[in-house]
Amino acid sequence: xxxxTWILMAASLGIxxxxxxxxxxxxxxxxxxxxxxxxxxxxMHLFHGHGGHGGxxxxxxx
Length: 62
Fold this sequence. Notes:
Elements: H1 3-24, H2 26-31, H3 33-47
């Protein structure tokens, strides 16, 4: 088997395990959802690109 087959098998197994873990612990997973949302806010500010700001003209000349 080639490496692509191994990657697909590992990804499939990971999705199956994640499904069953969430199915058994759904109440716990929903309990941390508000905290994950609050954590996402500062992470978005840190890691989003700063290149899309329009109107910042930093020319040295007049």
